[in-house]
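Good morning,

Attaching, inline, the backbone tokens for the sequence recovery test we're adding to the shared suite. The designed sequence is right after.
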């Protein structure tokens, strides 16, 4: 069964709770409400597909501080900020840190709906990328240290003879390890192997 996606609201405002709760119900999302960032951080499990709607001005840990903490922990949950006092410097900082948008209260329910849809689409895309990257990592982890030595030179474009000379191996040994590398990584050619590595590096660079 697919995981249930959760819409987190971090805002002590009762009106925000009613509006976001209604949207969550219409979108068939699990809805969790917290009045502080501390309560959210204590309860949140990082394996849950989700997005956050959060007030900037929170008692204790602020919205920006919460975002900074999640970024530092490598958590890629999309955040939508809402505030009656969305000062421009804070809004700019939030957007630079990857916030989906910053909405000013009173928030249009349609604007909030659209922003949540955007956030959930972004979250699904990130999860697909993370899953692909994890799969590549598992394939590369199957290589022995000796196969990894050959792999590193292969993806740099060196021919078998050069690899053999650099590692002090016979051509036959390099060819055998090359065969094992293709089998363990699920690739059938050097081009596929290089493409797998390039895509993995690109995903890492985009995180």
């Amino acid at each position: 069964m697919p995981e249930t996606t959760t819409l987190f609201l971090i805002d002590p405002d009762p009106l925000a709770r009613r509006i976001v709760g209604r949207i969550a119900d219409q979108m068939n999302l699990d809805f969790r409400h917290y009045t502080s960032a501390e309560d959210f951080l204590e309860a949140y499990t990082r394996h849950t597909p989700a997005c956050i709607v959060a007030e900037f001005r929170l008692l204790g840990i602020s919205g920006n501080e919460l975002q900074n903490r999640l970024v530092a922990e490598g958590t890629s949950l999309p955040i939508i900020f809402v505030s009656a006092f969305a000062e421009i410097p804070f809004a700019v900082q939030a957007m630079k840190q990857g916030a989906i948008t910053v909405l000013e209260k009173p928030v249009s329910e349609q604007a909030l709906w659209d922003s949540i849809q955007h956030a959930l689409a972004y979250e699904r895309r990130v999860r697909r990328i993370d899953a692909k990257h994890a799969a590549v990592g598992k394939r590369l982890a199957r290589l022995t240290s000796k196969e990894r030595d050959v792999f590193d030179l292969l993806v740099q474009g060196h021919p078998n003879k050069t690899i053999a000379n650099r590692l002090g191996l016979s051509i036959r040994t390099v060819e055998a390890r090359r065969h094992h590398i293709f089998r363990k990584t699920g690739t059938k050619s050097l081009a596929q192997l290089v493409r797998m590595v390039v895509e993995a590096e690109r995903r890492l660079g985009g995180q």
